[in-house]
Amino acid sequence: MNTFTIDTQTMHYVDIGEGPVLVLGHSYLWDNKMWAPQLEVLSQHYRCIVPDLWSHGRSDAAPQKTQNLQDYARDVLCLLDHLQIDSFSIIGLSVGGMWGAELALIAPERTKSLVLMDTFIGFEPEVMHAKYFAMLDAIAQVQHVPEPMIDVITPMFFARNAEQANPALVAKFREHLSSIKGQQAVDVTNIGRMVFGRRDTFDDVEQLTLPTLVVVGVQDMPRPPLESQLMHDAIDGSQFFIVQDAGHICNLEQPAVVTEKLLSFMNDVHA
């Protein structure tokens, strides 16, 4: 792991491989290790930069000036400037896709392509916004994720049969949720408010004229395929790919299928 400091706060990131640069953004409540199966293959052809989102993995809490996902996209751009990286492609899952789209809009001349996975760049629907903010408030108040809430949150990330198909993956995520305690729990909920209180990036969607791939797990509950279809329809010339037998973390539920699709798309972009 490497480190980069912004306003005294330390961001941890992975920098592996050589070649054209791919910037990967992980899901809320996960970290850079979420991308392990993809990095194993992609890093043989590309230089992969994977920051831990603020308050996730080994990164500190967000700097005071980082108030929303546009600000976070600028933080990642500062990292890329620090690394003297002029051009890059973005692969973002969930919140990684949300800030990834903002980064593509902030630095269009530097962004070669964009992959939006199990994500949505519009407003959070009102009912879910209220539900998520109530959960975040409850977690911040008790400074941990209560067991009944772990029972609710865990299945949201996976396909319906995940506990049978991939029990170790589900158990590890439950264990991770149990480990979020104290100030970290408060810091993580602050990031959650940025995620679920995000702006409607559809306001600027016509500016996304770069090669774009939209990917979604067919059983994704938080970000259903309809949302991905809306993004695909709105982004001119984008490609659309549905991952069978997968939920929100489709890259870990169907790693071989997803890795092959990402590699194929990036090879086309860089041909």
TrEMBL record:
InterPro entries in UniProt: AB_hydrolase_1, AB_hydrolase_fold, AB_hydrolase_sf, Epox_hydrolase-like
Coiled coil: none
SUPFAM superfamilies per UniProt: alpha/beta-Hydrolases (SSF53474)
Domain AB hydrolase-1: 25-254
MF terms in GO: catalytic activity
Protein name as it appears in the record: 2-succinyl-6-hydroxy-2, 4-cyclohexadiene-1-carboxylate synthase
Organism (species): Photobacterium frigidiphilum
UniProt lineage: Bacteria, Pseudomonadati, Pseudomonadota, Gammaproteobacteria, Vibrionales
